[in-house]
Amino acid sequence: MADVLSQQEIDALLSALNSGEIEASEVSKPERKVKVYDFKHAMRYSKEQLRSITRIHENFSRLVTSYLSAQLRTFVQIEIELVEQVNYHEFIASIPSKTILNIFDVKPMDGKMVIEINPQVAYAVLERMLGGQGDPAERDGGLTEIETILLQKVFSKAFDTYQNVWENIEDIKVVWEAIESNPQFIQIASPNETVIVIALRTTIGEVTGRMTLCIPHLIVEPMLPKLTAHQWFSTMAKSKVPKQPEVIKKNLDDVKVPIIAELGRGKLPVADLMNLQIGDVIGIEAGKLQLKVDQLTRFLGNPGLLNGHYAVQIDQVVYPEGDDE
To answer: Which spans in 113-256 are helix H?
Structure first.
């Protein structure tokens, strides 16, 4: 707290001012703290919201790493290098003039986002998919039609996981739309619109490069209120815990199991078997029909008809040794 002048000090100060001993300009004034704000680079996202977006894309990078590792059958590592907010013009200016850009349509936001893939990374993917070692040769030409289709399939499948990482926040659908090589030909936002840029450091075998995801404010804006840490964790907890038993039960209910009804068994010498003719009758042991699941007898029953079809009426459940009744 600043010192308070006594009446004697105040009188002395006024007297000095009147006599000219000191100038009024020499009396110190409190400095105003000024914060520079650039309206061309408006910061739309708080640090907390950016942290939530970072966590979401950390999950995405892990899922894409697993997917590409399985598809390419080689070492793949994808890590977040940076997450920042810039305007769209800065993003376009920061990427090479010849690169590979995958454009995705995002519903229900009715907006588009783009992922820029370093050509070395893209060519490494193509090399592995076409049977090579993943060591791309120096290339100046564009993609062939076959290579374009292959990249489309790989990255459209990879982005199936993108909507999964957002499911605790918002239900979105991401659909691959187009592939471009010149950034000047795409316009997913106005030049001064704020976009979120997520740089992913990508290693495929011995090749290392960048994949850069650009998300316009139009897509993220409806989800901003849900990007606080408290909301994000509470939504995740509520949505995940109850769903697991339901998903497991649903998946088990849809499993198809082959069942075989064994009418009976009979023994026949090989010589008689070789001489069987049309109309011959083979005797079998009489008894209940055995219903087998995966070669194990689980039910006993009697033959019959149901709606004009052969059927088995179950009379008894058989518990193999080791099963709990």
So the answer is: 119-129, 145-158, 162-165, 217-220, 229-253
Cα 62 from Cα 79, distance rounded (Å):
8
- Is 155 in contact with 115 (CB distance < 8 Å)? yes
Per-residue pLDDT tens over the stretch 80-123: 999 999 999 999 988 888 889 999 999 888 889 999 998 888 88
User: Between vectors from CA 176 to CA 170 and to CA 179, what angle results, nearest 5°?
Assistant: 140
Question: Cα–Cα distance between 14 and 226 in angstroms, integer?
Answer: 59
Average confidence (pLDDT) over 205-211: 89
Distance (Å, whole) CA 299 – CA 315: 8
Tell me the pTM: 0.59
pLDDT tens digits, one per residue of 45-84: 888 888 889 999 999 999 999 999 988 888 899 999 999 9
Sole residue written with tokens 């893939």: 117
182: left (phi over 0), alpha (psi -120 to 50) or beta: beta
* Residue 160 near residue 64, CB atoms below 8 Å: no
What is the residue type of 54?
T
Question: How many CB atoms are closer than 10 A to CB 26?
Answer: 9
Q: Which of 283, 294, 300, 307 is nearest to 259 (CA)?
A: 294
In 38-142, where does DSSP find H-type helix?
47-72, 88-94, 119-129
Burial (CB < 10 A; 0-12, 13-18, 19+), residue 14, is: exposed
CB distance 85 to 50 below 8 Å: yes
